[in-house]
Design goal:
2 domains, 8 strands, TIM Barrel, 355 residues, elongated, binds manganese (II) ion, alpha/beta, Chorismate Mutase Domain, subunit A, binds phosphoenolpyruvate
């Protein structure tokens, strides 16, 4: 086990994904914070988020209100009963957040990418008992994400969770940050007991992507959502395009189909045994194919032929790509599968040729 964990134990609404954290990107004014919080609480939300210190890509943007905003968060807690959460990036942020009674801390994507910053945050959390959520680093590096979680865990924080907020990329055609779902899926496989929360706001960067991304997170068995919600989204001082009003958020959440990861029925067991049998056949076929490849390797050696024959390789990719379309598979998928198979054939033939 890579982490020593206890349950996050965050409040949840039975009808909703087990945990929903909602609130504005940034705490802007006391009025904006209170108006948003009261509306969210009225819709049944239990955890309020707001950024007090904002990491901005370039200088000159709104960098958050800092300590001035912390009493507003305290008011939210006192007047609505919601738990409060904010981002911390330095030991000073941790100290101030704790001083004003913030209930949950999260570490942002720019901070989790930096082991020095993570270690100094971890040091400042020694002896503190508070839930901490660690966003994925901006770069798609699972080990760096796990390392950031381990640093906080080694400081004694056991109520730990991960937030998937997507990964920076030059390609911003659809998403602000590419979801690359295979990364949080691999995190789940490696550390099954670690809760993973999806942040559709920073993945999508656009209001219309919030609902489908929330549903996708539910379909994949994520443990909760953190969504940016503002009383007047168009006027938000940061991330205006991706924020939704509390009313819209409530509507989005009401439409979500929440699925259960642990149910197994007779129906699914039968389908899975079919899959197991097919996988078995696939493996046997692959082994058979490799035996023929090795024979070809011997033949090539005897006849002094090169292992790689580019025209033959192209022929395989083209044939199988065309066949894929006819079988309802994507040609890109077929190309990837055959690239891997071919790579292994070449490796085995090289062994034979060099014996
Ligand atoms: C945020 O949650 O407002 C934020 C700054 O997120 P990220 O660290 O994912 O960019
Ligand atoms: Mn934001």
């Amino acid at each position: 086990m890579e982490l020593n964990l206890q349950s996050l134990n965050l409040p949840s609404d039975n009808e909703r994904p087990s945990c929903v954290i909602a609130g504005p990107c940034s705490a802007e004014t006391e009025e904006q914070v209170m108006t948003t919080a009261l509306k969210l609480a009225a819709k049944g939300c239990h955890i309020f988020r707001a950024g007090v210190w904002k990491p901005r890509t370039k200088p000159g943007g709104f960098e958050g209100k800092g300590e001035e905003a912390l009493p507003w968060m305290k008011r939210v807690k006192d007047e609505t009963g919601m738990l409060t959460a904010t981002e911390v990036a330095t030991p000073e942020h941790v100290e101030l957040a704790l001083k004003y009674g913030i209930d949950i801390l999260w570490v942002g994507a720019r901070t989790s990418a930096n082991p020095f910053a993570m270690q100094s945050l971890a040091d400042s959390l020694q002896g503190v008992d508070i839930p901490v959520l660690v966003k994925n680093p901006v770069n798609p590096d699972l080990e760096l994400w796990i390392g950031a979680l381990q640093r906080i865990n080694q400081a004694g924080i056991k109520r730990l969770g991960a937030i998937h907020r997507g990964f920076s990329s030059f390609d911003k055609k659809i998403y602000r940050n590419l979801p690359m779902w295979q990364i949080p899926i691999e995190l789940r496989r490696r550390i099954p007991e670690l809760p993973i929360i999806c942040d559709p706001s920073h993945i999508g960067g656009r209001r219309d992507l919030i609902a489908p991304l929330c549903q996708q997170a539910m379909d994949l068995g994520f443990d909760g959502l953190i969504v940016e919600s503002h009383c007047n989204p168009d006027e938000a001082w940061s991330d205006a395009k991706q924020q939704v009003s509390p009313e819209i958020l409530d509507y989005i959440l009401s439409l979500l189909v929440v699925r259960d990861e642990h149910t197994t029925t007779e129906g699914i067991r039968m389908l899975r045994s079919q899959i197991d049998e097919l996988d078995n056949q696939l493996m046997e076929l692959l082994a058979k194919r490799m035996r023929v490849c090795r024979e070809i390797g011997t033949y090539k050696k005897e006849h002094n032929m090169t292992v790689l024959q580019a025209s033959r390789y192209n022929e395989i990719l083209e044939k199988r790509g065309a066949q894929a379309s006819l079988c309802g598979l994507s040609p890109e998928f077929a190309a990837q599968v055959f690239e891997h198979i071919h790579e292994e054939s070449v490796r085995q033939q090289l062994e034979i040729v060099n014996q």
